[in-house]
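Morning. Coffee machine broken again, so started the prediction first thing and wrote up yesterday's gels while waiting. Chain of 199 residues, entered below exactly as on the submission form.
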Amino acid sequence: MRTGERVKNATGKLVRAATEPRTGPDWAAKTYNYLRLGMLAAVAALAYSIIEEYRQPGAHCFLGSVSGYYYTPVRLIFIGVMVSIGFTLIVIKGRTALEDWFLSLAGIMAPIVAFLPTSDDTKGACRRDMLNIGHYEPASGSRFVPVSINNNLHAFVFAGTPPLSCCLSPCSSGGAKPARRQKGTTIVVAAWDSRRCSG
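Came back before lunch.
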């Protein structure tokens, strides 16, 4: 066989391997494992960002609440991590209906913690030190913080209302109620997860 034919055959095999649909439970198990690993990576990123603030000259202390880092340079990492963890908790299906319900509830609450942070404690630990080095944006007197919170919460409600309504509303198939509900994922504006009923 000529070299050109070998290359052509090898290329054809690669193309077929890349385009053929995967079958069996293996790909689903890998997806679940990657989601769990992704949560660990997100938590590691948040921890690193907080430690990075701790190492700043003049600080060397931690705030009393993780949510308090909303007012620091950690804000973007904090929000991104909480939203990604919330989405992952909703997508992952629990072993039982109760576990699945609690996972979904935790997934809904995680973005709320990010979008509606703890109040700015003027007497909180480490606040003054971080304020002195310019790494803290107090909520009092700031027009950006309340406007940002309102904007994020409104977007969250807008994206979450349709799938939540679908989850709570009774589904029917031919006038009969379904025997069970299955979890599925639906991208609605902000890639929010929903449940869908199946007959």
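The longest helix spans residues 26-54. Going to sketch it on the whiteboard this afternoon.
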